[in-house]
């Protein structure tokens, strides 16, 4: 992987990442394709219509169905899905966290039961890398120990100890595999934990950033804490991360979250919000969110957002989308998801342009002005 900083504006960064499959310009939002598919959209929609440079797949879900061996049979995620650009695969640590009633972590890894058939499985730092070698993703996240917030100091301390121990095992294993010719074009990112406790974030960042990972993520946020506390934690953590490597904030978030955290030095984001909200009738616009299910849109001939040039806004009215949603037509999911993802991806491009021009502060002020904030 190649990484360069193109411009900074305050703490905000415009960077370029080159992987084996694509050139990624940051700040970047990664649409979530959990099981190798962004819900209701295909590879042509993602690459040609939306221009996504990278999407996220999930190790836990792909391991269970269709299995990493099946994906390998088709030539990895790129051959299986036909998406030509980069993939990042999450390790499954978040799924173990979110399925905590059917999973249990110990010092060696995470035992969990499949949410599909109840079968028992055990993820170790080495196991999740083996799965990701089969998936052939461009960026592999290592196994981490994530905790819900609020949490006791004892539980957070255990989380960062496990995360560091697993990171050391992961980087050693990855180096051994690359020496054997496996995963030579795959990159590996570590995940900084520590809740919202600055002391623990400092410990976790120092321990992990001393190891030769290709990039670093901030994990364990957007799991119950307030937005203000999340922003404060990111602002404290990003200066602890290497300037010369990508910075990724996992599972975040709203358009406001993206703007605030780009300002704090984050390069990469992912979240299910744009596609999940689309399916539920909540659509993002330059002036805020609208709920397309509202009766007031029944005879509205205007596009979702007059400032948007996505496929949906160029061809269809609010009234038609309101009808599709009310009629539970499957076409609605595609058109709404295209719009919301276009909004997110365009927002990232606009922030990049503002950083390159040294105008990020003015961009942020205009972003909020349009929302009446």
UniProtKB/TrEMBL annotation:
Note describing how the cofactor binds: Binds 1 zinc ion per subunit.
List the Pfam families hit by this protein, alphabetically: TGT (PF01702)
Stated role: Catalyzes the base-exchange of a guanine (G) residue with the queuine precursor 7-aminomethyl-7-deazaguanine (PreQ1) at position 34 (anticodon wobble position) in tRNAs with GU(N) anticodons (tRNA-Asp, -Asn, -His and -Tyr). Catalysis occurs through a double-displacement mechanism. The nucleophile active site attacks the C1' of nucleotide 34 to detach the guanine base from the RNA, forming a covalent enzyme-RNA intermediate. The proton acceptor active site deprotonates the incoming PreQ1, allowing a nucleophilic attack on the C1' of the ribose to form the product.
From what organism does this protein derive?
Sulfurospirillum barnesii (strain ATCC 700032 / DSM 10660 / SES-3)
| Family in the record | Belongs to the queuine tRNA-ribosyltransferase family.
**Can you tell me which residues bind substrate?**
90-94, 144, 193, 220
The protein here is known as Queuine tRNA-ribosyltransferase
> Which of this chain's residues are annotated to bind Zn(2+)?
308, 310, 313, 339
Q: Give the Enzyme Commission number.
A: 2.4.2.29
